[in-house]
UniProtKB/TrEMBL annotation:
Keywords carried by this UniProt record: Nucleus, Transcription, Transcription regulation
Biased segments, Basic and acidic residues type: 123-140
Protein name, UniProt field: Mediator of RNA polymerase ii transcription subunit 22
Keyword hit for Nucleus: yes
Spans annotated as Disordered: 120-140
Main location: nucleus
UniProt keyword Transcription, yes or no: yes
Location relative to the cell: Nucleus
Organism of provenance: Anaeramoeba flamelloides
Length: 140
């Protein structure tokens, strides 16, 4: 693929150079073309140069596409970066979940202790309500 592109580039440059040489041979500098044949030749050679330049632009575009699509290292680096960001987020989420688990288990233990105390479960919960109300009043 690369050799084909290089051959195309070489061929187009040769076409442009040959056309420029023919233009210089056909037209004498600082002189206007004398006959219609010279005008036609100059027009044809100019068209060849323009066509070659357009094909070179297309070739450059193909080369850019090929470079982008075949740039495995940057794709791999991008994937590694995304994986590391994912792992960082996963670690943060795991820490948050662990903290929530600890808080929930502590609150569940307190709730079970309050509700299942055989002697004064109801009175303890009322006392805790009063404590919480006092704490709220102190904060305000």
């Amino acid at each position: 693929m690369t050799q084909m592109i290089l051959k195309n580039v070489d061929r187009e440059f040769e076409t442009m150079i040959n056309s420029m040489e023919n233009i210089f041979q056909t037209a004498k500098i600082n002189e206007n073309p004398n006959n219609s044949r010279e005008l036609v030749e100059l027009s044809i050679l100019s068209t060849k140069i323009i066509n070659s330049a357009e094909r070179l632009l297309e070739t450059v575009f193909e080369m850019k596409q090929m470079a982008i699509l075949n740039d495995d290292q940057s794709i791999i680096n991008s994937i590694k970066e995304k994986i590391s960001r994912y792992n960082e987020g996963k670690t943060k989420n795991d820490q948050i979940l662990l903290q929530m688990k600890t808080e929930v288990s502590h609150l569940l233990y307190q709730l079970e202790e309050t509700l299942y105390d055989p002697f004064d479960g109801i009175s303890k919960s009322e006392e805790e309500k009063k404590k919480m109300e006092n704490e709220k009043n102190e904060e305000n």
